[in-house]
Amino acid sequence: MDWGMKNRLAQVIQPDGHCFFMPIDHGYFQGPTRKLERPGETIKPLLPYYDALFVTRGVLRSAIDPDNTKPIILRVSGGTSMLGKDLANEGLTTSIEEAIRLNASAVGMSVFIGSDYEKETLLNLAKLVTEGERYGIPVMAVTAVGREMEKRDARYLGLCCRIAAELGAKVVKTYWCENFEKVTNGCPVPVVMAGGPKVETDREVFEFVHDGMQKGAIGVNLGRNIWQNAQPVAMIKALRAIVHEDASVEEADEIFNSSKE
Fold it and tell me: pTM of this prediction?
């Protein structure tokens, strides 16, 4: 691996081998998401606690302070919306040259395996990896499932992660599921959790994140579970303790309750 690639990966993955990514890219297909209407304001109190920001070029330029930010993972796929017929019909929206211009540490795109556009999204990933290797920019593949939530099981997600790794992704972002070790054990590159099933309590978020970390994930890429929470700073402090300090669910719960405003 070239020095530039190693250096950029070291910017987003911390010395302990773990990472905490903060995604605020939701608006690229669902518009002004609740609590993300003003993304720059949303992330201000969270800035000290995450390791890298996952964001589109539009929001990066318009809402993120270039003098005070963390490493950037640039969302480079899109072209569909919640109103369209198929969220899987994505293409590449941003070039590697643009990522370099924006000083991104990595780029990320979605693949929709099992959809009508499986081939197109996988070939887009392969093309992006080829371009990223040319300039030393790592690619994070996002195993998106569109509206088909029932596909979030270990067999399906394990298949998605392995294919993304085979095509050259340096990191794979996927959903937590039961038997998560089957996903991580079959993927030769680091796996980052994007979230899990819909939960009713904050403690349940701590539980699936802790489980995923124990079963091989290197970190999380959590957005709505944090910035849509009534206590976002307390939430991110508790989750960061699980990711970077090997905190238990009980310890995370204590941190959350003691950090509430």
Answer: 0.96
Q: What's residue 148's pLDDT?
A: 63
The residues that are catalytic are 173
Please state, in angstroms and rounded to a whole number, the distance separating the CA atoms of residues 260 and 253: 11
Q: How far is CA 191 from CA 38, 142, 173, in A?
A: 29, 10, 6
User: Tokens 């197109």 correspond to what residue?
Assistant: 120
According to CATH, what is the number of the domain 3-224? 3.20.20.70
Q: What is the pLDDT of residues 125-173, one digit of tens each?
A: 999 999 999 999 999 999 997 666 566 899 999 999 999 999 999 999 9
Taking the CA atoms of 47, 193, 98 and 133 in sequence, report the sign of the dihedral they define. Answer: positive
User: In this predicted model, what pLDDT tens digit does every residue of 10-24 receive, in sequence order?
Assistant: 999 999 999 999 999
- 33 token code pair: 């998401």
Separation between Cα atoms, residue 77 and residue 223, nearest integer Å? 18
Rounded Cα–Cα distance for residues 248 and 184 (Å): 20
Sign of the Cα pseudo-torsion (216, 239, 146, 170, in order) = negative
Q: Give pLDDT tens digits for 112-128.
A: 999 999 999 999 999 99
Contact of 169 with 121, CB cutoff 8 Å: no
Domain layout of the chain by residue ranges:
3-224
